[in-house]
Structures are given as C-alpha cells and as structure tokens.
Amino acid sequence: MKKIAILFLAFAGSNFCSAQQKQENKISFLHTAGQDIVNESGEKILLKGVGLGNWLLPEGYMWKFGGLGDRPRKIEKVVADLIGKEKAAAFWKTFRQNYITEADIKRIAELGFNSVRPALNSRLFLTEGESPVYVEEGFQLIDSLVTWCKKYNLYVIIDMHGAPGGQTGANIDDSPNDIPELFIEKKYQDQLVDLWVKLAQEYKDEPVVAAYDLLNEPLPIGTGSADRYKHLLEPLYKRITEAIRKVDQQHMITLEGFNWSNDWSLFTKPFDNNVFYQFHYYCWARPDNLNGIDQYLKKRDELNTPVWVGETGEKGNAIYWATTQLFESNNIGFSFWPWKKMDTENTPYSIKKPVSWDLIAEYTRGGAKPDAQLAEKIFNELLENIKISNCDYFEDVCNAILTRIPAKIEAENYGFDGFSHSYYIADTTNKSKFYRKNEPVKNKS
C-alpha cells in the first residue's frame, strides 16, 4: 500500500498567498491576447469559477436517480408521474427559483471565485416540436444571474450544455433519442444558431458575460458518434460564430473538442480573433494521480490562444489541490463542477437528502411507485433543502480548490513549478514509474 506523506499547512505567510487573493479588478470586457485572457486595461485575468450544474439542466446522478431519471426530460416525467402535471409545473418553477439565487452568487464571490458557468438546456429557452417558440422563463433566469454577478463582480460563461436535438446522444445533454440529432437534422443546427444569436443580441453590451461556450462535450468516441459526425463539428462552430459576430463583435467564444471536450485534433487554426479552447479534466484513476495535460499545452503553442478547463472536480481534496496547482502553474483557468449537489462531501455545498428520498430514487430504478401525497411532501422538502441557507458547507473543499490554508497536501502532489523551484531532492537518479514520471522524485510503494 502506498505510503502517503501529508504536509500540514498552518502558516499564514506561504507561497500560496497569491492563490488566495481575490481578483479586485473592475469588471470589463475580456478578450484574448495571445495565450492570455485580459481585461480592457490589459491586465491578465485567470478565470477561476464554479459550474452551476443541475440548475437549468438537472442531471440524474445529482438526484441519485436510476435509468428512468437519468436526464432532464426523464426526471420531469418522474415528477409528473408522481404528483401530476399541474403540481409538477409548479415544482419546477420553484426549483429553478430556489436552486441558484442571489445568495449563492454572493457566497461564490465571498469564497474567492471570480466566475460562474451556468449549464443551459435549450428546452428551457426554446420549445420542441414543428414550430418552436422561445420560452421567456429561461431568459429571465439568465438575466437575473447576470444582474447578481454584476453586483458581486463575477464573470459569466454561458454554456450550451443541452443543444436542440442533443450533441452527444447521451443523457448529459437531455438527448431525446440517444443519438446526436443536432448533427443529423439541419433544423436543429438552425435552431442552435438562432438561439445563440438571440443570446448574443441580449448580452452584446454586457461585460459581465465573459464568453459564449458554444457546445458542451460534443460527440463521444465510445458511442460511435465521433467517427460519424466529428467532421461537422468545426463547420458548425464557424457557422455559429459568424452568426454571433453579425450582432456581437466583443465577446470571447470558447470551443470544446469532440469526445467530451478533450480531443482537439480537428483544431488547426483559430477562425476568429477572440476565441479560446477548452478541455474538461476529471482524474478518476486509482490510485489517485493527475492526468497529463502536455497535449493541450503543445496545442496551445500551435494555436497561440488561451486554454481553459470548463469542468474539473468530482473527486477529492488531494486531487483538487494538485489540479489547481497544475493549472495555475501553466496559466490555465478553470471552472469547478459542480457548485452543489445532493448528499456529498466533495463539493463546496451539499444539499441535504430529503427524508424518504430513497423511495423516489428506487422508483427510477423500477421500484414501487410512492404514494402521491408522500411524493409531494418529499419534493416540497427538496425545494427547501436546495436553498443555500439550508445546505452544508465544506471549507476544506473550497480551500483545496483555491489552494489556501488551512489545508493538507499529499506530498506527491506538492509543487508543480519543478525541481529546484518547488522542491529539492539530493538524489535525482530515481524517477517514478507511474506518477510525475519526468521528475526526479521516486514514489514509494
């Protein structure tokens, strides 16, 4: 079993102070400058934020649901089946009002983050069917978010998490038929372009909006979608960008590769002068260790644009601390995923699981259907529990994400500025066989 050395940090004046400092720069339009993101004064801004997942696009795993509730449309069906359509409609309206509020945004700013990435479901902004119409509620919710972020000096990266028709053919984008119909049906591409133009028209003069994230995690390899449709991805990005630029020449645009954002092989040259590229970073290996990012650093040099991590998280404090050190030492910002979810200890905030919630969860796995009156009581309890004032806060998680004290660091994750900068070792001949392989530090087993 690997022996882990733990460094306890209990001193105020440390090399990590810079990571603790809140950016006090006044909000202004951001734009790319070579490999940096800068404000209107030319000051570099490293976007360090949180993802507002599960708010506008509920995800089944955050509800602890099974296959019958693995995506928004299925979760909505579960709620309607249990309490009826009329009460379900009221539930969802209140859910969206309570899940992210001004109090959440204030707290995000207080903790030292400088940005948020709301995950949008196009169905909340545009109806499905033959003659789709815009839905006012979605736009009102984003307007409120932008207003709060302006008040508390946070940037907003608008993330199209669920495009019309679905861009992955999986549950995460609310795909209706488990195929990426966005790339199959031209009508969905037209709808996506029009939706982005409408959003750009709304926020073209709003500096709080940092960037438009055109498409979240498109075309996974494992389903065969990437092989069939990846050649259509960059042309779609170009089409959306050209349409946006007709109404908005100021905002940055961020592009994700195929295969859950992480394959950039299609990108050869930026087609816009205010674009940056994005990958997502989850370290799920055992034993815990960091994934390499050399391919993205190399590609950054080729493209000469900023690089940003749109999602990272879903692990533990040792990985969070090491991840942030790795990113910041390489001039990469990030958005931690997610801000809060149910019954967890690895996010900044945890939503208390309602009493008898397991009955609802079991129903999504084919179990017995709970009584309607009981189900309504459980859902009403959830509506109260999702308010930040009723959630549990984990200081250790935030300290790990933002690399600040008090905290503890596993020794093998310490110091990413390299030998003779972050650490020194007398014997440089031995190297690890499995982690930080290029550095003269031998990991013991």
Provide structural commentary.
The chain is of the alpha/beta class and 445 residues long. The chain has a domain at 27-55 and 100-352 and 391-409: Glycosidases (TIM Barrel), CATH 3.20.20. The protein has helices at residues 17-20, 72-83, 85-99, 102-111, 136-152, 186-203, 225-229, 233-245, 294-303, 317-329, 357-363, 372-385, 395-401, and strands at residues 6-9, 31-33, 36-38, 48-52, 115-121, 155-162, 209-213, 252-256, 275-281, 307-313, 333-337, 340-342, 349-351, 392-393, 407-410. The strands form 4 sheets. An 8-stranded parallel beta barrel has the order 4-5-6-7-8-9-10-11. It has a 3-stranded mixed sheet with strand order 12-13-14, with no helix packed on it. Strand 5 (115-121), helix 5 and strand 6 form a beta-alpha-beta unit. Helix 2 crosses helix 3. It is globular, with a radius of gyration of 22 Å. The chain starts with 5 loop residues before the first strand and ends in a 35-residue tail after the last strand.
Strand and helix layout:
Layout: E1 6-9, H1 17-20, E2 31-33, E3 36-38, E4 48-52, H2 72-83, H3 85-99, H4 102-111, E5 115-121, H5 136-152, E6 155-162, H6 186-203, E7 209-213, H7 225-229, H8 233-245, E8 252-256, E9 275-281, H9 294-303, E10 307-313, H10 317-329, E11 333-337, E12 340-342, E13 349-351, H11 357-363, H12 372-385, E14 392-393, H13 395-401, E15 407-410
Parallel strand pairs: 4-5, 4-11, 5-6, 6-7, 7-8, 8-9, 9-10, 10-11, 12-13
Antiparallel strand pairs: 1-15, 2-3, 13-14
Helix pairs in contact: 2-3, 3-12, 4-5, 6-8, 10-13
